[in-house]
Amino acid sequence: MAVIIDGKAAARKIHEDAKRRTAVLLEKGIKPCLAVILLGKDPASVSYVSAKEKALAQAGMDGRDLRLPASTSEAELLALIASLNRDSLVHGILVQLPLPRRIREERVITAIDPAKDVDGFHPVSLGRLVLGQAGFIPCTPHGITALLRELPVPLDGAHAVVLGRSNIVGKPLAILLSRRDINATVTICHTGTKDLAAITRQADILIAAAGKPALVDAGMIKAGAVVIDVGVNRVDDPSAKKGYRLRGDVDFKAVAEKAAYITPVPGGVGPMTIAMLIRNVVEAAERAG
Fold first, then answer.
1. Which one of the listed residues 96, 117, 229, 249 is annotated catalytic?
2. Per-residue pLDDT at 223
3. Which of 65, 85, 233, 269 is the most buried (most CB within 10 A)?
4. Catalytic site residue from 8, 19, 42, 52
5. What is the per-residue pLDDT for 236?
6. Does domain 139-270 have CATH number 3.40.50.720?
7. Sign of dihedral through CA atoms 35, 142, 113, 165?
8. Cβ-count burial of 83 within 10 angstroms (0-12 exposed, 13-18 middle, 19+ buried)?
């Protein structure tokens, strides 16, 4: 039976570190501040934003809650971002995704000052990641690598298979895993991959970020693998209080019988994503100060 990786416990360490660093900044008269922009009232997005704002408050940081109607135009959103770029009291800017289809996500992301891009999605941030330069690392991939470092398993030379090639998780994660400080050999799989299971069964470390509930079953992993489940999928369940349950991309019960380590959903990668965001905010304030 696999050891369950406790993302909440690992995240607490990062939050405590951010809190200590924030206290040092406060003594210098600098209060880290994150502006969070949310368009509309999508329940999942509202929940994510609330969790981020709670974490900011616990760390002693400021959070600007900028909730806009879903009808907000792209021009209005870009004007708001421009004003936040100019505001010296704001150290980080986060636009909650996804955005309405009529708004060009890429244009919004590139409008954010790279010095305040605490999500790590700006082309400048991703370019620095590729080149191994200092910059903001996307929070979910950064959180995953932090979890892996906590495990008593060899990472140097390990074969890591990443299911998913998004700009938010899959691609930056593959780059992080292949860096010399981790030194894994990385394979990226996607919808066009032939005989997917034949590849995933080779993985010492399998990261599922495909957005498909229970995609990975026990037959797709080798015994003793480390399995990181990034998926957060809402599956209808009339018996649940909210009418749905969260399910990962991994068939947790079956895979846990075969893996050495596995993250749960919820409680695995999710808390680490928020923790890394808080770390990025305090780093932005330190650089600006």
1. 96
2. 98
3. 269
4. 52
5. 82
6. yes
7. negative
8. exposed
Short-list 203, 245, 250, 246, CA closest to 222:
203
202 flagged as catalytic: no
- Residue of 119, 204, 249, 251 marked catalytic: 119
Residue ranges of domains in the chain: 29-113, 139-270
Nearest Cα to Cα of residue 271 among 165, 99, 147: 147
Residue linked to tokens 């605490």: 118
Determine the pLDDT at residue 201: 98
Q: What is the mean pLDDT of each run of 10 residues along the chain (289 residues)?
A: 97 98 98 97 86 95 96 97 98 95 96 98 97 95 97 97 96 97 97 95 98 96 98 85 88 97 96 97 95
**Closest C-alpha to 223, from 175, 256, 189, 181:** 256
Active site residue 258: no
Does 52 qualify as catalytic in the annotation?
yes
Q: Does the structural domain 29-113 have CATH classification 3.40.630.30?
A: no
Helix ranges (H only) for 32-114 are 43-59, 74-86, 105-111
How many whole angstroms separate alpha carbon 138 and alpha carbon 273?
9
Q: So what's the pLDDT on residue 213?
A: 94
The answer to whether 29-113 and 139-270 have equal CATH topology is: yes
